[in-house]
Amino acid sequence: MITFDQVSFTYTEAHRPTLQRVSLDIPEGELCVVVGETGTGKSTLLRAINGLVPHFSGGTLAGTVTVDGRTTRDNRPRDLADVVGFVGQNPLASFVTETVEDELAYTMENLGVAADAMRRRVEDAIDLLGLQDLRDRSLRALSGGQQQRVAIGAVLTASPRLLVLDEPTSALDPAAAEEVLSALARLVHDLGLTVVMAEHRLERVVPFADRIILVPGDGAPLVVGRPEVVMQSSSVAPPLVELGRLVGWQPLPLSVRDARRKAAPLRERLAPIAPPQRSAPLVATEGRREAASARKLTVSYGPVVALDGVDLTIMPGEVLALMGRNGSGKSTLLNTLSGVRRPTRGAVDLDGRDPQSLRAADLVHHVGLVPQDPGLLLYGESVRAECQTADKASGLPPGTTMRTLDRVLPGMPADRHPRDLSEGQRLALALAIVVAPSPALLLLDEPTRGLDYPSKDRLIGVLRELAGDGHAVVLATHDVELAARVADRAVVLADGQIITDGPARRVVCHSPIFAPQVSKVLAPEEWLTVEEVRLALEDAVPL
Amino acid sequence: MTRAAAPRRRSLHPVAWWLWAAGLAICAMRTNNPFLLALIGVVACVVVSARRSSAPWSRSITFFLRLGLLVIAIRIVIEILFGQRGVPGHVLFTLPRVPLPSWAAAVSIGGPVTLESILDAFVLGLQLAVILLCFGAANSLASPYRLLRSLPAVLYETGVAVTVALSFTPELVQSIGLVRQARRQRGIPIKGLRGMRGVAVPVLESALDRSLQLATSMDARGYGRRVAVGMTSRRLAGGATLGGLLLLAAGIYGVIDGGSLFGLGLPILAAAAVLCGVGLAVGGRRTARSRYRPDPWRQPEWIVAGSGLTALAAISVAGALDVPGLTISFSPLAFPSIPLLPVVGILIALVPAVAAPNPMASPTTLPRAQGGSETDGPRSREPGEQRRPVQPDLSGVST
Description:
The structure holds two protein chains of two kinds. By secondary structure, chain A is an alpha/beta fold. In chain A, about 35% of the residues lie in helices and about 20% in strands. The termini of chain A are far apart. In chain B, about 60% of the residues lie in helices and about 5% in strands. Chain B has helices spanning about 15-30, 35-50, 60-80, 115-140, 145-150, 155-185, 190-220, 230-255, 265-285, 300-320, 340-350, 350-355; strands at about 90-100, 110-115. In chain B, helix 1 (about 15-30) packs antiparallel against helix 2 and helix 2 packs parallel to helix 11. The interface between A and B is large, with 101 and 74 residues.
C-alpha cells in the first residue's frame, strides 16, 4: 500500500537530513503506529506519505514514496486526496467549513463526487463515528473528542484506502481517546483500511497496533516490526511494557488483559509488601496554614455552569492531580484559583488574600499558572530576553529566572527563539518564568500534551522537587500515568462538581478510567508505577 | 439501519432573502415619502425578528439600525450648518454667519435655518437609512456561508477564501483574549505601546501558524484539484469573460446616459450578461467540484422573493401612473398624502414573516445540557450564548 524506497529528506537550511535512506513497506489493512521521541521526524515521515513533504514543506526529498501505485513525485497532496486521508494534530485548525455536515462533505465536493453518493457517504460516516446528534452543530462549539471524530469522518467520506493521523488523541481525555481509537480499529477491521498514526501516549495505542515503526532519530535506521518485538528494546515504552521487561515476561504483554493473565505469580510475590505511602498524611500538616482554599466556588458562562459550589483546600508541599473528562471544569477551576477568572459566587483565598484584589505584579508572587499552550506566555525574541522580561515584570533581581531555568532544564540554548524550541523546552521555559517569583501555589494545565517520555520524566522530577520546597502544585491532566507517578492527592471533577477527593493511590486505583496500567494489572493491590514495583522487588526476599 | 430522525433545519435559500431585500431597497430609492419609508423599515424589522436564526450574523440588523440613525443625524447636522440659504420658509432659528473668503462663495456657514430644509434633510437621511436597513435585513436573514456556496463554480475558490477569512475573525478575538490572560499571569502590563506589541506578536504568530495548518489541511483534502481541459476551452472562457465585462461597462454607460450609443444600452447589457454567463460556465468546467445538498428553490423561496418584487412592482406602477404622494416636497409645507397602492405593495413584503420556514423551530437549537469544552472563553460558547458576537472574557483584567 505504501512503499518508501531509499527516501532521504532534508529541510531547507537544515544541516542534517531528517529522514535518511528510509525504506519501508506497509501492506494493506494494517494499523501502524509511528513512535519515537519529539523531533526525530515522526511528523515528517507521516507527511511524506501524501506528499505534504516536500510539496508543502519545501526541502529536498530523494528516493521514491509510492502510495497505491502513485508516486508523490508526480502527484501533489490534492491529487492524492482520494487515496490518502490526512488528519493533522489540531482538528480545529483543519476545519474549512462551519457545520459538521458541510465539513463531512467538503473533501467529496472537491473530488466531484455525485450528489446522491455524497449524501449516502455522509450518512454512513455519521453512523460509523456516532455523530448523529452533532450534524447541524457549529464545529467550533464541539468538544475535543467530537472535533477529532468529525476530522476523521471528514476524510473518511472520500473513501480513501489509507488514513494518516498525527497524534489523534493528544488533546483527549482517556474516555474520548478510547472512543476515537476504537473507531479507528473498527475501520481497520471492518473496512480493511490502512491506518498510520503517530502517538506519544503509547499506553493508549499499542494494544491496537499491528505494527510499530520506531523512529530513533539522528539518522539511525527505522525499527519496524510487530509490537511485542519492537517494544522489547524500544527507547520509548508504555508502563505495561516496562513492567513486562522488568519481570521478564515473554512474549511482552501489550494489553492489560494479556498482562493480567501472566501476573498471578507477581501479584503473589508482592502480596506481603505494602505499597509505599506517598501522600503526606493530613495530620502532619495540622497547624500549617493552607496554601490556598476555595469556598463554594461557582462560575458560570451565560447559561452554562462550569463550576458548581466547589470547596477545595490545598496544602503546601502537596501535588494535587485534577482529573475529569473534557469540559468538566478543570481549566475553569485553575483559572479561577489563579485570579484570571472572577468567580460568579464564592471566593478564593490565597494565603489570606483574594486574587481578584491583587495587582498583576503582586499576583505572580502568590500564584502561577502554566497554560495549556505554554507558547502563550512567550513572546520574546530569545530565551534570554524572555527571562529578563520576567525578572523585570515580577521585580526580581536580574538573573533569577535564568537560574531557575537552569535548574528546571539545564543547558537551554539562551539565544534560541522560543518558537524554535521543542515542546519540552518551551514548557520548561514557561515553568521557569512562572516559578521564579516563588509563588506559593503553582498551577499547570495539561502539562504533558505533546511531551515524549524523557521530557515527562524530567517534568515529574521538577514537580516533586518544587513540592519538596514547599510549593503547592495543582495539575489538571488527562494523563493518568503522570498523575499516578507524581500526585499525592487526586480530585475528580464532573459537571463542575468535585465527585472524589482523596489520596491519589486510592482515587486512581479504584476508577476504571483513571487507573494507570500497572494498577490495572496488579489490582486489588494498590501499586501505581513500575518504579514502585521495581523497588519492592529489590527489597523482597527472593522466592 | 437507523438514520438520524431529526430533520435538518430548513433555512431559506439565501438568494431569495437577498431578492426580497433588494426589492424593498429599490422601493426605498423610488420614494421620499417619510411614511412609506418608515413603513418599509418597519416591514424589514418585523420580518427579521420573526425569521432570523441564532447564528452570530443574525445580530447584524442592530448594527445597521444604529448606522441608519447616525446617517439621519449627520444629514440633519450638515443641513443646519451648511444648508442652502435664501429659500423662503418657516425660520426656526438663525445661526451666526461665518464670513468665508470670496473663493469659497459656494459654501455658506450659518444663517437662518428653516423647518422645510430640516424636513428635506431628514427625509433624505431616512431614505439612506432605510436602504441600509434593507441590506442589514438580508445580512441577518441569510447565512453568508450559504450565500457563498451559491456562487458559480469558477468563483468557488474566491468564495472559500472569504469563508476562511470570516471564520478567522472570531478566532483572532479569542486568541487576543488568551494572550492578554497569559500576560496578566506574568505580571506584564497589557496597556500602552509596549503592551500592544506584546499582545500583537504572539497573536499574529498563532494566526500565521493556524493559517498554515489550514492550508495544509485544505491541500490534503483536494482543494484546488483541476481537470485537464483543452487550450481552446480556456481561451474561450477567458475571452468571453473579458468581452462580457467590457460590454457590461459600455452597456451601463448607455443606460445611464440615454442619448449616447444610439439608445442601444439595454441590448448591449443583455449581450454582456450572455457573454459573462458563457465565460463562467466554460471556466467552471476546469474544476470538477460537485455540490453537497445545494439549497433547494421551492415554494417558500418563490413566495419570499416574489413578495419583495411585488412591492417593487407596486411602487413602479404607482410611479408610472404619477400617483400623488410618492415623491413629495415640503415647500410649500404640507402634510404628505399616503398613496394606497404603494402601501398595499409594501405590506405584501410582510408575507415572509409567516411564509418563510422558521430557523428557530428545529430541536437542534436547544442548548446542550452538558458543560462547555475544555478551554475557557469563546470556544466553549453554547448555542444560547452564540447570539452575542464573540468577546474575550477580560473580566479578570484589572485596569
